[in-house]
Design the sequence.
């Protein structure tokens, strides 16, 4: 297997003032951003690698649609943006049979691991807080693997053996379709949210036993609370990419009761960057959602979960990871403390990772 450095990228630590001028924000915001752990709880770029060979190791522009839907992230831009860690997601077509989904997932997991290994001069697979700390000390991006839609490995509980050697850190129970793991929150679902069945509850318990994050993004409200009820009370729950109904009422967003349930577990909610869920066209709307979480359940339970490259329409001033420091500028303008900003950028997720795996 080849090991090679990624294409050249700018190291903004060498000239933070230039990056500040480029983005039209303060040097204070850039320096705070560069001094922080910056972790994205949900990135979907590997989907496009599978569909049309999108090369994660190559530096791209904003693509055919100017930053809509895809081409918001690649490895070189993530490194230039000083994103210290991210959850790189694997989705699996629900149209396959249960065994077919498991076989597809096994291939996709091997392929994503190979892509990460090929770029090992600049990034490394991370499974624990200790491994993240080591990657950070080496100046490498901490790549964490996630499953978007647990039906990728839901043939039976034994199928979870495919989540071998702890490489998979997170499973989002459902995606855009319902399965025996629960009902999606989408209004296009075929049937009403009837709550979790016995297999889904056993599945959550099995994920808890394996110290794999249970992610409640996309799931219907009744299933959400059934999952909370069965979840190990000593472990944090995530909702990695979501908006909040307290800012923008939407079927895809969490209400305040759901936020309180996540906070009570010690977990965190990552705010998505998709305009329809945000209810606005600028990065300020992302901060509106972060601010609501902080006001509702405290500064320890808000994070970033962009859903970059997940067919989203991002804010017009946040079209790629290279513009992330704009969020820091906006938070500073609203009076967020340095400590609160650093928690949101990455500290809150790191706390949950320590609680899960150490």
Sequence:
């Amino acid at each position: 297997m080849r090991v090679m450095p990624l294409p050249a990228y700018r190291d903004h630590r060498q000239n933070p003032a230039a990056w500040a001028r480029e983005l039209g924000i303060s040097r204070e915001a850039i320096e705070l951003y560069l001094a922080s752990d910056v972790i994205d709880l949900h990135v979907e770029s590997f989907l496009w690698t599978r569909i049309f060979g999108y090369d994660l190791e190559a530096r791209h522009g904003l693509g055919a649609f100017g930053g809509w839907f895809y081409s918001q992230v690649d490895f070189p831009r993530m490194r230039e943006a000083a994103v210290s860690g991210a959850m790189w997601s694997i989705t699996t077509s629900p149209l396959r049979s249960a065994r077919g989904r498991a076989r597809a997932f096994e291939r996709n997991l091997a392929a994503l691991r190979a892509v990460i290994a090929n770029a090992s001069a600049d990034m490394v697979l991370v499974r624990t807080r200790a491994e993240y700390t080591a990657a950070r000390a080496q100046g490498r991006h901490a790549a964490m693997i996630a499953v978007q839609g647990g039906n990728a490995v839901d043939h039976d509980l034994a199928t979870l053996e495919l989540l071998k050697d702890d490489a998979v850190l997170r499973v989002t129970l459902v995606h855009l379709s319902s399965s025996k793991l629960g009902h999606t929150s989408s209004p296009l679902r075929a049937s009403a949210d009837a709550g979790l069945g016995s297999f889904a509850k056993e599945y959550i318990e099995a994920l808890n036993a394996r110290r794999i994050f249970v992610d409640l993004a996309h799931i219907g409200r009744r299933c959400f609370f059934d999952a909370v009820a069965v979840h190990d009370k000593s472990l944090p729950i995530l909702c990695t990419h979501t908006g909040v109904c307290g800012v923008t009422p939407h079927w895809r967003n969490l209400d305040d009761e759901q936020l309180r349930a996540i906070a009570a577990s010690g977990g965190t909610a990552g705010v998505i960057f998709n305009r329809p869920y945000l209810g606005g066209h600028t990065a300020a709307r992302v901060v509106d959602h972060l601010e609501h979480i902080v006001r509702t359940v405290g500064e320890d339970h808000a994070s970033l979960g962009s859903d970059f490259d997940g067919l989203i329409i991002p804010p017009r001033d946040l079209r790629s990871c290279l513009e992330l420091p704009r969020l820091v500028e906006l938070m500073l303008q609203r009076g967020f403390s340095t400590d609160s900003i650093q928690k949101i950028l990455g500290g809150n997720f790191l706390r949950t990772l320590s609680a899960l795996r150490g």
